[in-house]
Amino acid sequence: MTSDDVKNLLIPAFADATIEVAGEGAKFDISMVSEAFAGKRAVARQQMVYAVLNEQIASGDIHAVTMTLKTPDELG
């Protein structure tokens, strides 16, 4: 799995987001800025992303994910 593969999985679920994915193999760093995260705590934001990637995580295609998830207002 490539970083582009991961990004392409996330785009439909977070259409308004700015998404950056780095990494290769089964370990990825995901940085996203989206209004969808507004009013949500960090765990809820992560759960939103994991919901999209769950199939790939369960299959082992993705083993480790580090996430930075913010709203546009949090960019300061």
UniProtKB/TrEMBL annotation:
UniProt superkingdom: Bacteria
Chain ranges passing through the membrane: none
UniProt-listed SUPFAM superfamilies: BolA-like (SSF82657)
Gene3D superfamilies (alphabetical): BolA-like
Family affiliation: Belongs to the BolA/IbaG family.
Name of the protein in question: BolA-like protein
InterPro entries according to UniProt: BolA, BolA-like_sf, BolA/IbaG_stress_morph_reg
Species of the source: Reinekea blandensis MED297
High-level lineage: Bacteria, Pseudomonadati, Pseudomonadota, Gammaproteobacteria, Oceanospirillales
